[in-house]
Design goal:
Largest sheet: 8 strands, mixed
Shape: globular
Distance between the termini: 26 Å
Oligomer: single chain
Order of helices and strands: HHEEEHEEHEHEHEHEHEHEEEE
Radius of gyration: 19 Å
Structural class: alpha+beta
Number of strands: 14
């Protein structure tokens, strides 16, 4: 499948995630997650230098002093005017990539300028994500078992068939126990928050629902995909330390507020590209031949409609 009729930035974003994946591939399984991330960041930024759009990094590698490249507030692309909010995660799941484990991806998303919720002061969010059938059915403030029962009814499935992804972290242990007690299937994952959340909004992905506390920046990235997929998503900030709470309140964040999908990212143009480094629920990881790397990407563009999985062959260095 091609990207004919894609939005302006889509092809450049696709190329940037493929470049990041190809450049870090030789370090996959090395045990050095910083080296994996560094290679991907450098390659993504180099690729974006020739892009034909103008954008501002709203969700990036961090503040300028901590992340000299692809930092929050950086102008990227060569186009004018600057019309896009950009979210980048050159490697989502650096530890997975370093260990050669499933679930590592390179991700970029875009929405119209001013559309993305800035979330740099809080690292974590409570989230609920599902597909189109969950709209008007689920609610972040309802107990996990009740949401699972509601979704089972909406999908005309038995509760035992509902697959619920919750990231395997101590902050979610009680929730994981609730999911198991409900009779649903817990889909375990240790990293890769964005991929699992998007899978939950993608019909027939093998994941019906995502619950729990995960990354806040990843939540906004996910929202771009959920908008295109017509899925359901709600979140609430979940700061975990006194310092994080203080910074959030200093930035006038409402820590009690429940964010609907349109409050996470708004507008009518959304792009999401997830290029698989290792195998995952949205695309197959890199495969090697003697001369090439075969790389798959899961691509969403509000102008294209249905999700597309694209495969390219990149010459080995």
């Amino acid at each position: 499948m091609s990207l004919h009729n894609a939005n302006g930035p889509t092809i450049d974003i696709f190329k940037a995630t493929v470049a990041a994946t190809a450049e870090c591939w030789h370090l996959v399984g090395s045990g050095d997650k910083n080296a994996v991330d560094g290679a991907a960041v450098d390659a993504m930024r180099d690729s974006l230098r020739g892009a034909n759009f103008g954008g501002v990094v709203v969700i990036g590698e961090g503040e300028k002093d901590e992340a000299p490249m692809l930092f929050n507030g950086e102008i990227i692309g060569g186009g004018q005017p600057v019309e896009w909010d950009i979210a980048v995660d050159p490697v989502d799941g650096t530890a997975l990539a370093a260990g050669g484990l499933d679930g590592a991806v390179s991700v970029m998303a875009a929405a119209q300028r001013g559309a993305m919720l800035a979330s740099s002061e809080v690292y974590y969010m409570q989230k609920i994500v599902s597909g189109p059938a969950a709209r008007g059915v689920l609610d972040l403030d309802v107990a996990a078992a009740e949401n699972i029962n509601r979704l089972a009814a909406a999908l005309n499935k038995d509760v035992s068939e509902i697959r619920v992804a919750v990231i395997n972290k101590p902050r979610n242990y009680d929730l994981i126990a609730e999911v198991k007690a409900s009779g649903a299937q817990w889909v375990r994952f240790d990293e890769g928050d964005t991929t699992m959340a998007v899978a939950a909004a993608t019909p027939d992905s093998g994941v019906d629902l995502l619950l729990g506390i995960g990354g806040a920046p990843e939540g906004v990235v996910t929202a771009c995909a959920v908008q295109v997929l017509g899925g359901f998503m709600q979140t609430r900030f979940a700061p975990e330390t006194p310092d994080e709470i203080s910074r959030a309140l200093g930035a006038n964040y409402d820590l009690e507020r429940k964010f609907e999908l349109d409050e996470l990212v708004s507008g009518d143009q959304f792009i999401f590209v997830c290029t698989a480094i290792t195998d995952g629920p949205l695309a197959r990881g890199v495969r090697e031949t003697d001369e090439f790397l075969e790389i798959q990407s899961f691509v969403l563009d509000s102008q294209l409609g249905d999700a597309r999985v694209l495969e390219v062959r990149v010459p080995k260095n």
